Amino acid sequence: MSTTILFTGDSITDGNRYKEEKDRGDLNHQIGHSYAYVINALLGSRYPERDFRFLNRGISGNRIIDLYARMYEDMTELKPDIVSILAGVNDGPQAEHAYHATGREKYGTLYRMMLRELKQELPEVKIILCEPFIGQKGPVYDSNFERWKSCMEGYQEEVRIIAEEFGAVFVPLQECFDQACEKQDTKYWIWDGIHPTENGHGLIARQWLKYASELLEIPRERKMYGIPKESL
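Above: the chain's sequence. Below: its structure in token form.
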């Protein structure tokens, strides 16, 4: 029996995946090169007997309202067993995109509406919510880092609360990146303060596997995932 895991979100999830229907048969590129690719590679290679199947429906630039708008096409119609969501950074105060920050209240309202309808359509679906995050430095912020930080902290707390309300797995990421940035400069992990490098995607994948392991009914294998003993 197979298990279909669907990843959705913005550019961090997108990973330059093929989006045209005609290209989705190219299995080298359908998952993109984000953390979803790393998770796919590790789980798929370690547990072939589980027949994990992976789908990526992240779209660069998407905000939470965009995920909600395409929920039926890119989530419910695909009938996944597990939906993993990472969204929030595009809901920040990005003047270059000509819109203001979504704001915590609206962000939380839209997120709840989306999950409520998702559960109505797919009552058995399991949900994994990833915490939105930012780097401590980056050209995206210019002189507005504190504004960004305050905005993201509101979204982070909201996602944690929503995960509890819907019985979803919550994957914390901000602290993980903060600790990593004490060992290497932010750009080693998140080159512009928003978009992770390959190293950053590796961190996300490790955290995801750590917190989703119980839901997936797989052991937390330190040797395979590279998770330090003290983090378990």
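Residues 227-232 have pLDDT under 50 and may be disordered.
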